[in-house]
Design goal:
It is a multi-pass membrane protein. The protein is an all-alpha fold. The chain is 72% helix and 0% strand.
């Protein structure tokens, strides 16, 4: 059977104490009273030594548990530090979900406006104000949703960084890994600028996108 290897940094476990056998109970019924007292005194001394040995072993085990507790505390601090990274990635996923919803609204609004505009240019319909207004409304809803998601993401990320910094300075967690630049946030800002350009082009009839 292969021996189990202890992880690095884990304190060594104390050797198993098989314990000395308990001294046998002396038989001193037939002995004189003085001799019986001496015999039982030696017996009590033997029991006391036996209890002392067990007590020392319990002390070793207690120190071992204390060392393990410190090791578990360190592991817990590292897990807590990594949980900040998981929370940051969860915030990125939330922003991506808001981006998808906003992109759907922006895409529908722009498509509706362009479709009815082409139909008017072809002479199929005369008035496109209602569809145009509906498309612009969808665009604005998408922009508001995306802008709100960006503001919420920046606020949450700032609070998360500050809380992580405070806990690191207090020695409560390890923060070996740094927070990278959020690519999701960069794309969200670019999408917001593109949506604003589309709205300005529709409302003021400007060719901002070429």
């Amino acid at each position: 059977m292969a021996e189990t290897q202890e992880p690095k940094g884990v304190p060594a476990r104390p050797a198993r104490n098989m314990g000395e056998p308990v001294p046998p109970i002396p038989e001193a019924e037939a002995a004189a009273s003085d001799d019986a007292s001496t015999v039982f005194s030696h017996f009590r001394t033997g029991l006391s030594r036996h209890r002392t040995g067990l007590s020392e072993h319990r002390t070793d085990l207690s120190e071992y548990r204390t060392d393990l507790s410190g090791h578990r505390t360190e592991m817990s601090m590292r897990r807590t530090g990594m949980s900040f990274q998981r929370t940051r990635m969860s915030a990125d996923r939330t922003l991506m979900s808001e981006m998808r919803t906003a992109l759907s609204l922006i895409g529908f609004g722009f498509t509706i406006n362009q479709a009815f505009q082409k139909m008017q240019d072809a002479g199929s319909i005369q008035n496109v104000n209602a569809p145009r207004n509906f498309g612009v409304a969808l665009l604005i809803f998408g922009i508001v949703l995306l802008a709100g998601g960006i503001v919420r993401h920046v606020q949450f990320a700032t609070e998360l960084r500050d809380r992580r910094k405070i806990m690191t300075e207090d020695g409560l967690i390890y923060s070996d890994s740094r927070f990278p630049i959020s690519v999701t946030l960069v794309i969200a800002v670019c999408l917001l600028a593109l949506a604003l350009a589309a709205v300005l082009g529709i409302v003021f009839n400007l060719a901002l996108l070429g």
